[in-house]
């Protein structure tokens, strides 16, 4: 699959809004019959455009609604150091997102914990101990504004 047409873009848009949408509903909304619609979804999955499906969790109900964004500055940014950090950060379950940034710091993390005390423990015992971490700076979320 080299280029996406309007049907493919619409499928991606609809599935991003509702990953549990049935093929029948999807085909009705994009104007294709079920079989061609299903084949397009399967091709999008196989080609890697759709990486997976997941549930959106209400974190307030499961007691991990404390969010912090953390800037990480490394003491080494050569490829081996970046690869070591990238591998190690995947082992910290509290890190919900990790992005390498072009800025005066190297990574921006989204960290989700139960409360400030548990965040402080994650920062001190896990994040700060990752390979090549020189320093960090934390921004605590006061309110999450849901946009979708």
From TrEMBL:
One of its GO terms (molecular function) is sequence-specific DNA binding. One of its GO terms (biological process) is regulation of DNA-templated transcription. Transmembrane segments: none annotated. Keywords: Activator, DNA-binding, Transcription, Transcription regulation. The keyword rRNA processing does not apply. Residues 4-65 form the HTH asnC-type domain. It comes from the Bacteria. One of its GO terms (cellular component) is cytosol. PANTHER family: LEUCINE-RESPONSIVE REGULATORY PROTEIN (PTHR30154:SF0). This is Leucine-responsive regulatory protein. It comes from Candidatus Pseudothioglobus singularis PS1.
